[in-house]
Amino acid sequence: MRDMLLVAAGLCGVYAEFIWPGKVIPGAMGGVLLMLGIAGLIRGPLDLRAIVLLGTPLGLLTVALLAIAWRARRNKTTI
After folding, report:
1. Predicted confidence (pLDDT) at residue 49 exceeds the cutoff of 80
2. Smallest Cα–Cα separation from 38: which of 4, 1, 13?
């Protein structure tokens, strides 16, 4: 449970870095918390529910960011 909370807090920090790109501290702390939480989850027994609960939001976030990047690249103008 503690490791899943670390992962959730880490994702919030990384998300805050995407919202406010100039701020370094939320992204750095989020990355550290994310790594600690994932390391704790890997060390313990693997639970299918935990994998699904963590994998689904990460997959959706990846798809959303790829869609934004694709749209930005398509709308890019060359001078």
Report:
1. yes
2. 4
